[in-house]
Amino acid sequence: MADSERSPLLVTRDVDGESHPEPGNESTPLLSGRDSPRYDGNDSQRPQADDSASIRSRRSNPASKSAARRRWPSIIAMVILAILSITIMVVAFFAPAAVEEYAKEAAVLEPTNLSLESITTDGVRARIKANFRLDRSKVEKDHVRRVGSVATWFVRELATEATRVNVYLPEYDNILLGSTDIPPITLKIDGQNTVIDFVAELVPGAAEGIRMIANEWLEGRLNQLRIMGKADLKLKTGIIPLGTHTVSESLIFEGGGEGGLPPYNITRLFFRDIDNHTVGAEVSISAYNKWPVAFNIPPLAFEILLANCDLHDPYIQVADALTETVVIKPRSNAVANVHGVVGKLPDSLTRRCPDSGTTPLDRLLKQYLGGESPPVYVRGKRHPTGGTPEWLNEIMSQVIVPVPFPERSFNDLIRNFSLTETHFSLPDPMAEPGDPDANPKVSGTIQAIANLPQEMNFGINVTHIRASADVLYKSQKLGVLDLRKWQPANSTKIEANHGDGLDLMIRSRIKDAPLNVTDADVFTEVIQELIFNGKTVHLEIKALVDVEIETVLGELVLRDIPAEGTIPVKPIFHGGSSKHDLLASLRPEVGFIKILETTPSSIRLEALVNITNPTAYTASIPYISAHILCNGSIIGELVAENLDITTGNNSYLMVQAKWEPSAGGDEAKAIGREFLSQYISGFNTTLSVQAHRDTIPGQPLLGEALSHFKLTIPAPRLSLPGSSPPARKGHFIRDAIFHLLSSSAQFTLASPLQYNTIYVEYINATAFYNHTEPVGRIIYELPIAAPPGLSRTPRLPVDWSVGSIGRDKVRKALGGGLKLDATATVAVRIGQWRERVWYVGQGIGASVRL
To answer: CATH number of 733-849: 2.60.40, 1.10.10, 1.10.150, 2.60.450?
Structure first.
């Protein structure tokens, strides 16, 4: 070592500039001078005191000047030490606040990477990389910036020894969040960048604190989080120790109310049968890691939970899941592959909630099928198999993460909803208003196609189905088809016609489903199209369907599945070129007429009717009534009960009719008389049938809707004895026998009644030959009975037309026969009912006898 390095801090120099160290030892004072006493015990060398006179004498001679020069270094040293003392005092007592503020504002710490190297039995071993520097431009106050710059220029760098940092949660009763041991670090504080790179083991603290924070964050309730770090920090600069300092610092993390899982995509979801009571699930989830963090998550075991009836009820576990190792890299996508097992579903999932008609599964499916994202809850298993550390199990088992179920559109889950083999039933006349039996009923075969998601590759069998369906026509609601009763169903998997995968064909035979017509105007429009315009009507169906299914997990009920479809309703009549031809295709025939009750102005009768149903629909009619009209006037009432109409021919349908034209007034009475006259004369007559408000008991809206239409049909032909087919004109008078000598005639009558006798109480008839030549006239005022079947009248007196060609023709036909025409006014009586009608007969076969 050079001599100068071993020289004292302060030395005296002679005139030639050489240094002469003062002799001394450890007791030598830092500053020496002649007027300073010596403490080495040598009194002979102790300097004499100087008085002012001696000082002045030394200044006046050269020897004295040389001594003065030798004392200047001491004075300079004293000044320097004074300045340093003052500086130390300022730095020690006044500058620390400014330096601390400078350090806080100028410090820039930029994390560059955080990687998880391993999970240990006590915590997590992580590697932390960051850049540190002091940026004086970030300091706002000028004096703080100047003081801090001077202080950091002097110090240059700081070093810490190994330090344990504990992190607490002040807002949560100072729960220990975790701790870590930080290795020695040297920081450059003169503005240069310091690269920090060290490995530390992070040891979690109380699991309860971590659970509370995690749950609040996942629920979006953690607006901000204040943490406090405490450490005993040993500092030094170079080799100079700066002591141990207890550091306590709080940080506030602002969350802005945002929380929960980061955005993710379910890239794969697949279910499959494992055995006869277990379904396996495979899920792949992708999420982007926007942080400079890298680590591997080891395989972890989870429980999959669903919400219970009440928020305070425990969650319902439905599945177990196990993840594969997840590799997370900074600012890149991470993929988690999850394997789950769903066993037999617990009873609590399908048990109805108190004061509610739904189950937890119902509510989940209702949200999911409605296009929402119901949460599925994930919780770590408390005692999983494998090598997961106990501390991690403890934390994971106390944190429940809500995972929104992926959204999926179910608008086309059930499509092609159709109804075939349709059968209609009119309301029960004895049903009370509001009773389902007071509505028309529909029976038929429901057929629908369920669009099975490709992810579902396990056995499903539909066993029952029910629904509440709105029926619409041209987007206007016609009514409601009530299928609230469970109907047996079956299903078959078929190849999908829209791509890969399978569809589920569902069939169910429904019986007597009430159809409640809610808009009479819409129903009127439908009837108009079907009956009078002969067009196919497409009814729209919008339904909420409940489906009972069998799976390997047990029997499940899926409720309120949206379904849409179209039911094509073929026109009631078809095959004719005109409306008249279509209506005539009914071909009604009336026979076996029985008079049930008579009054002087009315007849109530019962008859068997044969009609042809030209439609593809069948119907059951418990009760129906309609007005009978002729030329717009009501002349009677038609009533039918307990009719079953099938396709094609329908024979022996029992109907009742009441003939009472007088109820419609004098005009209706005259119209009724004219109709009877034309009908018995064999004219082409028509009747109209029109519904009214009480046509269908309990359904006035339906009756009013039907009342807008009049169904006009040819008057039905009566079935007469000894006539097949009963189609020729003049069929009520089968034949006649003229007796020339007695000037009388007998007629064979064919009565349409099978149980009652018709009485002819007055006859005023004229017979014609060749339509115009009179033969004779009959006036008879005594009652003539016409019992059921064929009967012959007594001999009626004939007043021959003398000199007429007609009489000569009759005489020439003696022993033979000829064809005659006749006109007559006839008074008839059935029971108490009486009516006078006219009759025109043509082509009546007459035999001539003496």
So the answer is: 2.60.40
